[in-house]
Amino acid sequence: MKRIYRWIVSLSLYHRRELLAGLLLLTALLGFFATKVELKTNFKDLLGEDRPVMVAYDALQENYPDASAIFAVIEGPSATEIVRAGNRLASVLEDDAEWVRDVRWREQMDFFRSYGLLLSETEDLVDLLDDLGDHPNLFRDAFAGFSLSNMVMGMNRSFEEYDDVSSVQEDEDDLIRGMAHTAAWLGAVSRGFAGEVNEFEIERALTDLLADPDDDDLLRFVDDAGHMISPDGTVGLLQIVGQGDANDAVYGTQLTLHIRELCQAVNEEFLSTKIGLTGFPVILADEAEAAQQGMGRGFVLAILGILAVFFLSFRRIVLPSLAAIPLLVGIVWSVGWVAVTIGEFSLFSMMAPIILLGLGIDYSIHLIAQFLESRAKGLGLEAALHEIFSKIGRGLFIGAMTTALTFFAIATAGFKGISDFGIVGGLSVLSAFAAMILILPLILVMVDSRRTRRGKSTVNVPLKRLGLLAEGLARWRWGVYMGMFIALIGGAFMLGRLELETDVMKIQPKGLESIRLQDLILEAFDFSIYTTFAMLDNLEGIHCAKAELDDLPTVKRVESLASFLPSEAVQQERRALIRRIEPALRAADPDRDPAIDPDILEREFGDYADQLFQMKTFAYMGGMTRLVGEIEAAEVQLVETREALRSADPSDLVAVNQIVYDKMKREYESMMRSLDRTTLAWEDVPRTYMDRYIGADRSYLLTVYPTHSPWEAGFGEAHQVEIETVLDAPTGTVPIWNEVLRRMIPGFLRASVVALGVLALLLLADLRSIRRTVLILIPLLASLFFTFALIPAMGMKVNIVNLMAFPLILGIGIDDGVHLYHRYLVEQSIRRAFASTGKAILTTTLTTVMAMLTLGFSPHRGMVSFGWVASVGIGLCLILNVLILPGLIRTFDPPEAVAHNSSRRVS
Q1: Is 295:305 a contact under the CB 8 Å cutoff?
Q2: Is 240 helix (H, G, I), strand (E, B) or coil?
Q3: Which of 415, 542, 563, 659 has its CA 20 to 30 Å from the CA of residue 121?
Q4: Whose CA is closest to 404, among 367, 352, 364?
């Protein structure tokens, strides 16, 4: 290495043009390769293409574009306003063929009404048949007539079956749900009588009365026209499928921006509604934008802070600032070497050159500090350059190698995202070191020659107090050891509070509209938009998988072609049940008179109040307190409804009655129509469902909706484990991200152990002493320990973002120890070593910490945690090297022994 350094000095002094030409040629060549590097911005690229979940995902994207959809959420005061805005937005999107492939806004309700009974779950038909056995007049009561009076009459008739305590106890659960839905319906009718006629609210309340809303069928969440509207009528949901893969960060961001522009234009037309976007692609785009917010101000402050540190350390700004030149060249070289080797950047590995901004500048600072020290002593230019490399050259080389090998060791993580990060990080460090030792001496020669011609002297500001502090700490080392022992006990206590953050939404920026809307969908529709997909070879397999998945506690709903095209065996089974149900349905014979008489309705409400009281009595006698509570709530609402009826405007009464009449008539006619539609063939299924659930490879798609957000701590993994008991190759955003989390943490731990092992071996090879190797590693390991211990003290948890700070801590930390110890071996004095090299590591630490604290201005909670963890860890490396290393040296490798060993080598 000494020969290489002498050669570099010679080139810098006597062959500047040749060196400059060679550097420009090399930079141009690697810069050309850098332009060829591939940016893989899809989160799926973190796992590698050979993983089963990724193979399935690629097939999914090729056959089912819906898998990477964006969701438009429409908030409004009423379902009517939401539908108007949604229709307009759907029209605009459907005309945008360049960006939008498909829009999912309206379900095919004619199809469902025509085949309603055949499309019902077999279990539901069995339950209906059992209900008919217990209540033969079920249909007659439900469809006594279509008018409001007829409906209440039918509700009164339904109570005839409950004439004792045992009959009420038998149907307690159904009655509890029925009472809750009855109270909701009475409330909707009461508001209609009062002049607040809300068609959607009344129809939705009737839907809940006529069918069990606990069923997680898709129709539970659509209005009578097929629009996806929340049960309270305040939120609409529209699904948008782009022409490309929206889960790709670049395309997803472009698609999000474009669709937002369209939504904004529609918003301006419908001021009473508010349209926003959410979904995994949207959150990724918002996350990237939020990560950049505030960074401009933080970057400016960091630059000013770094310049201030340069001035305080070197009493000048220009020369230290010129260190940015080899740093930038090193980044170009690193990207070029990445292009030549692995050929791509992923979402993780593209962070490595950014980290290089904190690491790469350190080598230049060490070199500049030693150069100024040598020139200030009166050494000539050539002698000063040679003294740089003779005193710190070995330390620089070993520091660079240890840092680079730390990154390369990360490549053993067994997880592509981390492995690529390690390889790119190692190449970046080596490139930065090579650029520094080749370019900076040339810059020093040129700047120094110019200053000499102007008659300016070189000023060096040694950090004598740091040397004196180190010497004092070495003298009082046993007190330091005792203090460290106490700190270790406290750190162990704090370490017990360390937690892992598995909810990725909690490391996202606060206040993101897309995350609020994601949570709103879960609240309004009772299911998460983050789904798991599977592709099966045959429809029979889809049927079997759906049946098993429906029974899993973490599964809310399962969608597939099986929901629209039952197998022949299933159809045959359902036909037999429908034939047994048919006589009771045909015998209903409802009254089709649309007229309404307020006096008759008042009488029916009175009878209904008596029925409720009688049922409450039976429930009270049977100890059914929950049912008693629901009945009392219905009674209170009934009183309000009767009062509203007495003071209702005739036009409002007619309007409410017409809504009820149309809804009841439509439901009855649909059921009667479905009695004659008991065979369903391929050609009967609407094309939109065939395209949605059958791929180009003739596979069948199955979509699983979870009951909760899969990002919730603990739930996502449990949901994944349950699904894997049924499906062999589940894929999609949720399984891929679970796989990333599942492999990332163990990968980092394994890579860290390997990195420390590699560092120990390299130091051992360099120092040829186990004792000295251990002495350098002790402050580093202590820094890592206290960094982990301080994370809960800072109110944070370990997450997938701040974990990326630990390679940086390892690289900086080992550098500090290596530089100090190598300088100590040269100076044979703790005071002189810390006064000279200590100044350089203090400067590098301050500049790096200022760069990391720039992230504190970002609203992205993950990036903020990264900045704080990196800053704390890097700062601790300096502090603990200053606190511990002098005492360790004095105890285990005193200057007398170093001088003795040196004299023996000389002799």
Answers
A1: no
A2: strand
A3: 659
A4: 352
Element (H, E) at 609: helix 598-621
The residue that leads in pLDDT, 226 or 317, is 226
One-letter amino acid of 727: L
Other CB atoms closer than 10 Å to residue 107's CB: what's the count? 20
Q: Give residue for tokens 């009459």.
A: 153
730 in any annotated domain: no
At residue 907 the predicted structure's pLDDT band, cuts being 50, 70 and 90, is: very low
Distance CA 864, CA 861 (A): 5
- Structural domains counted in the chain: 2
Could you tell me if 493 and 520 lie in one domain? no
User: Per-residue pLDDT tens for 395-418?
Assistant: 888 888 888 888 888 777 766 777
Classify the phi-psi angles of 534: left when phi > 0, otherwise alpha if psi is within -120 to 50, otherwise beta: beta
Least confident stretch, 32-41, 466-475, 651-660, 873-882 = 32-41
Model pTM score: 0.76
- Take residue 283 and report the two structure tokens written for it: 């959150």
Long-range contacts of 445-448 (CB under 8 A, 24+ apart): 445/12, 445/13, 445/16, 445/381, 445/385, 446/16, 447/318, 447/319, 447/322, 448/371, 448/375, 448/381
Q: Is residue 639 domain-shared with residue 561, that is, in the same domain? A: yes
| Domain match, 461 and 572 both | no
In the sheet with 100-104, reading across from the earlier edge strand, the strands are 100-104, 235-242, 70-75, 274-278
Q: Which residue matches tokens 């285990």? A: 892
Are the C-beta atoms of residues 122 and 574 closer than 8 Å to each other?
yes
Question: Token pair of 751, please?
Answer: 């890579």
Taking residues 320-335, what's their average pLDDT? Answer: 83
Structure-block tokens of residue 201: 């609210």
Q: How far apart are CA 168 and CA 174, in angstroms?
A: 10
Calpha distance 153→241 (Å, rounded): 47
Percentage of residues in the chain having pLDDT higher than 70: 91
Would 810 be classed as within a structural domain? yes
DSSP secondary structure of 322-377: TTHHHHHHHHHHHHHHHHHTT-EE-TTGGGHHHHHHHHHHHHHHHHHHHHHHHHHT
Amino acid 13: pLDDT:
84
Structure-token match 């080392």, residue found: 477
Mean pLDDT of 290-302: 64
State the residue range of the domain holding 349.
2-43+284-497+737-906
